[in-house]
Specification:
The chain has 302 residues and is α/β, with parallel strands linked by helices. The chain is built from 10 helices and 8 strands.
Amino acid sequence: MSKEQRVRVDAMMRQPRHEGPVTIEELRAGFRALMARMKVPDAIRTEPTELGGRPALRVEPDEGPRAGTILYFHGGAWVFGSPETALSLTGHLVTKTGFGAYSVDYRLAPEHPFPAAIEDTLNAYRALLDRGEDPAAIVFAGDSAGGGLAVTTCLAARDAGLPMPAALLAFSAGLDATRSGQSMDSKAGIDPVFTRADFERTSAMYFGDTDPHQPLLSPAVHADLTGFPPMLLQVGTNELLLDDSTRLAARAREAGVDVVLDVTADVPHVFQALVGELDEAEEALDRAALFLAQRIRAGARA
């Protein structure tokens, strides 16, 4: 670990905040600019495609993929982001595992509020199954809001009677629309990226007048995780969303689900994207890739 790196990253993420209201277009443009700074590995190829009625980005290693599929859901508070903004994360997972990935361009709020995103991600999973792909060779993964979608898509798939994927990976997942976690207050000012007001604004765009006290919006508080596949939850201690992951891990244990809670000290939200800036990013991606490869191998043997 490098204390100097973590201090430098913290300062980099504490960009001056806009004075006054920010439009949706400005939020989306700012996020694109931020994520364009993240390192994308060279040894990948990408191709626009379609999955479940939505645009998607196919990401593969240059030498071709091995058997196994990562179904990836990008972050962006359900309001901004795209498969392109998540390419650093999907690209590194692809190169480290050898699997191919589909990154889903699900519909965004406020134009398409809850449950549009979950409908799109569930349809993407159905499309893979309809193509004949083995669920034991499919893993769900996502960051931030996309990490939350990995969990809620799993809930929706189980409740629809679909087979479970081999595993679930979530980076700094948003898992509680009630914002009731203790870290929402205890990490205020420590989190270099977000404030409670940031989350309240984007959450309101996503679920509007819908009660957030339900499994598909707040799985860390309200979901029954019975029957879930093994999960890896990675999160940093400098996050308002820290307790989203810690509480989901506790619920998973209570439901008899294999779960690894992987907490890294003094790092910000979705620190895994900071390859080249933070040693912990590369190390966390290595652990994530090993987890996914082990789960797909185990599924293939079952």
